Amino acid sequence: MYHILKAEIGKLFRSRTFLICSIIAALMSVILLASYKMMSEVYTPEFIENLNQQTATQSGVSFQASEELDLSFFQNLSGISMLEMSFAGDVIQTLLAVLVSIFVCTEFSGGAIKNIASRGFSRTKIYTAKYIVCVIGGIILSIVVLLTTFLGGTLLWGVGETGGDFIGNLLTFLGVQFFLIAALTGLMVFVSMVVRNTGGSIAINVCVIMFASMIFQLFDLLIDSETFRVADYWIGNIVAQITSLSIPSELLERGIIVGVVTLLVTYIAGAAQFKLGDIK
User: Fold this and answer.
1) Residue 88 has what pLDDT?
2) What are the C-alpha distances in Å from 71 to residues 9, 83, 112, 149?
3) Which of 147, 158, 233, 239 has the most crowded Cβ, counting Cβ within 10 A?
4) What are the pLDDT digits (tens) for 87-119?
5) pTM (predicted TM-score)
6) Under 8 Å CB-to-CB from 184, ≥6 apart: which residues?
7) Can you tell me the mean pLDDT for 30-53?
């Protein structure tokens, strides 16, 4: 296992795909910072006050313009607030989908997996090594985004509030998000191991990231339940919903449960499929 894992880690850090995804992650974070910087300069307290003094009329109904906009966020930006928002979008998840798909599927197209298996290595160990290294790649991509947004936000607006149990909340936030990223990686590795085609795997994994939430929300509209929402248990949604260091206990518990189930189901199913299937 050690030798397989060492070889896979070497492949990851020599991978051009991993380097490119890391650079894109940093660039997307810089673009996000720049956009928030521009919006914070537009939505100044004076601008908000002017809005409060303006009355608009639509369909004969009078309302205060500022009541239609939540502008307070742009007046409280900081390194910490940007760090909290790092997982809110699909940047990390989409780049992870591309990285995992290419990293796993090129081994099949190039015949490397078949050569490794022919040397007598356990297929379960091969699958486990692939999974672990993909998790490492996903966590590094996450760290690139976290550091870029935090350092950039700190330079632009300062660190932010660090009172209370800041260190404990920060460690909980990072631990839960990294665990959920690891579980989501398991799903992507499973898809890639089943599809075994780079283009097809990228397409499926990216579509899952982009459209799964929408599909679950449509399903919730159909069942129209007031007590249960399927979309709340999609792991991608949970990652995006954790946007504060002070994670609500219900969201934290739900995230851990969904993460454990996703990780175990995808790992067991993926390892079994790879062990029993043919390698061409």
Assistant:
1) 84
2) 45, 19, 53, 20
3) 239
4) 887 889 999 999 999 999 988 877 777 777 777
5) 0.86
6) 93, 96, 138, 235, 236, 239, 262
7) 76
Same domain, yes or no: 64 and 115 = no
- Number of folded domains that form the chain: 2
Residue 55, pLDDT above cutoff 50: no
165 and 62 in a common domain: no
The amino acid at 192 = S
**From the CA atom positions of the chain, what is the Rg in Å?**
22
63 φ, ψ to 5°?
Answer: -150, 155
Residues 67 and 201 in one domain: no
165 and 58 share one domain: no
Mean pLDDT of 158-174: 89
- Per the CB < 8 A criterion, the answer to whether 211 and 159 are in contact is no
**Location of structure tokens 């992870």:** 96
Start-to-end CA span in the chain (Å): 23
What residues does 56 pair with on adjacent strands?
63
pLDDT at 112: 77
Answer for the pair 91, 180: CB distance below 8 angstroms, yes or no.
no
